[in-house]
Amino acid sequence: DKAEETGLVHTVSNVVKGVHYVCNCCSCCCAILRGVKEWGIEQSVAHSNYYTTVDSFNCTGCGICANRCQMNAITVNNNIATVNQKQCIGCGLCVTGCPNGAAQLHLKPEDKIVHPPIDFEKWEQERLRSRNIRETNDNG
To answer: Which one of 17, 27, 54, 80 has the fewest beta carbons within 10 angstroms of its own beta carbon?
Structure first.
């Protein structure tokens, strides 16, 4: 609860078998979140199968959601918050901070759901492929 209140992003190595890390991070100190935010390395953290929307009717433009967003995915213009879906990682910090319930998380459509890989090795292989990096071994 304290991590949530502070505005830290809950991150995990989401794989079917095993847990390699569970962390609560900020984008100013965490290299993984900085990789996502500053360099667009999307698979640095486990996929969230959620996305955020803001109900413009309930939004007062207070900016709390924008201040809590570690990815700078939310801007407030004309007293209404707007979410840039390409930058949003679906962490939900905006939702838990919104005093009016205007920010909401939604489950992505089935064709956009990313199922976790079987283990950390498979996840690493997916991450390398997505960045066009060939896997090498230490045996030459």
So the answer is: 17
